[in-house]
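step: validate -> pass
step: tokenize input -> pass
step: predict -> running
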Amino acid sequence: MKRRARSAALVCVGALTLLSGCTADRDTPSGRSSETPGPTATTTVAPGAAAQLADRYRRSGGAHEVYGIQQKSGPGGVPLLIVWTHNPDEDSAAFDELKDSITGFLTRKEGLSLKRGYLMDVFGPKGALQHRLDARPVAGVRGGDGR
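step: predict -> pass
step: emit ->
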């Protein structure tokens, strides 16, 4: 019995040692926080204001499957855009078209500035995260969306 207890104690100590090195707020070499900006799942119901913004987006010619768009302040004040869609397609080409359509609408019609970049999370019909985009410019590198 002593041997089993000693083995269990060693396993616990080893696990604690490994876990003690894990933190969510370490910075990456690019100077960005490695912490994810939001959840990986959400409800399938968009908040009221997000549904209203999506309605304006659809009326201006946006994708009919988008039923929620929420703008929040992300890390460092960069816009965080949360999108709810009925479209189950997780294809990167479909996502590129969607992000361009949404960011174009928000800059043209809603006056959102994306000069410092933006973050975007897209949640599918079952509430699962389909896409997570960090479109902030990398320190020292010109570019970014810049709308």
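step: describe -> Residues 8-31 have pLDDT under 50 and may be disordered.
step: cleanup -> pass
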